[in-house]
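Hello, quick one for you while I still have it in my head. My current little project is about how a certain protein chain folds up. You're getting the sequence in one-letter code plus the fold written as tokens. Would you mind checking whether the tokens look sensible for this chain? Here's the protein in full, and shout if anything looks odd to you:
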Amino acid sequence: MPVTADTAQAALDAAWQRVPRSREAVARVGAFTRTRVERILSLVIAVGCAVLGAQGLLTALNTSSERPEWRSAMALTVFIPLGLMLLACVVGRFQRLLAAVFVVVYTAALVIWPVAAAGAPSSPEVEPWIFFLLNVATVASVLAFPLPWQVVCTAVIPVLWGLARLVQSGFDPRFAIPVVLDVSFALILGGILVALGWMLRSVATNVDTARAQAVASYAAAAAVDATEQERVAVGALMHDSVLAALLAVERAHTERERGLAVGMAREALTRLANAERDAGMGSEAPVDAETIAREIEVSTAELGHTLRVERTQIDGIRLPGVVARALALAAAQAIANAIQHADAAGLRVTVHGEHDPARVAVRVIDTGPGFDPDAVPADRLGIRASIHARVAAVGGRARVSSGADGTRVTLEWADTA
């Protein structure tokens, strides 16, 4: 049975639901996801830019680097986009857009600045306010642009500042060394910031990729497992229902037996039509172990054979309904095999219980000619699916031993909680 797209998608959704979502769980598994790294970067950048921006704003208020007619316009043009960018970083929305706007506005301000500052007093020892925002623009590019454009901004903006400073000073030789130092420091610091941003994002992306691959692998395995379980369950259901109906038909000699065979055939068709619903074999609600014995007796009667199940030490033992249903169905299959292949010779069934912890063992014994369990073909589901797989699905164990003196099928389940 192939893995369908719906099965794979359902398994993938279930796998993602198993990924921890709470803050504590995320901290245990690892917090380096791309979303969280972007959030951390925006907050750290906001703090650093706020410090440098405050320094630049105080300098702009206390000094006059530009001519009076340019001073207010230049400051408002630069500091308003900067303030909006900081607010967006704190809020966590539109930070990339506003960071890009600030980078563009600041670059344009650097180009215009020599004109705005022409004729204004300047000294190599006193930096204008626009200088303090140099690396603010560099780190804003880390927030706004892909890596290639980050590198371009990191290289171009400091060089553009150096040219603007030299043009504003009229290429005064006294400004040469300070400008070279300013540009060098800005390039080094900008390169470090770009490298840190790239490293953190790469780690986060790799972790996200590994996490997604792990979930996809789990989903693929879960889909295959679910498909196999469905195949086994449907195969076992077909085997149980159809075989029981055929046996009833074969043994029907009276009107009552024929009516019983018709009812069993109708039930088999109904169960096949509702195979998906019946695959779960019951609920987890606890039931008495007596339920197993009663269901076995009913199933045996439907096969046209009267049987009294022997009960020993089962009073007070309770087990999940799905477990009781699985044991009863597996025992019914063993009984059907005994009726079909051993003509029910010496057929005997016992349900034995033990307390603390709760244990239940169902034994189906006959004195027929026996068979070789290892010689059963792989496509025969009577033992492999209807007995072994069914009991194993609920955490139990099935053993089949057969020889010249008969066959013994033992079904065991123990409460390991």
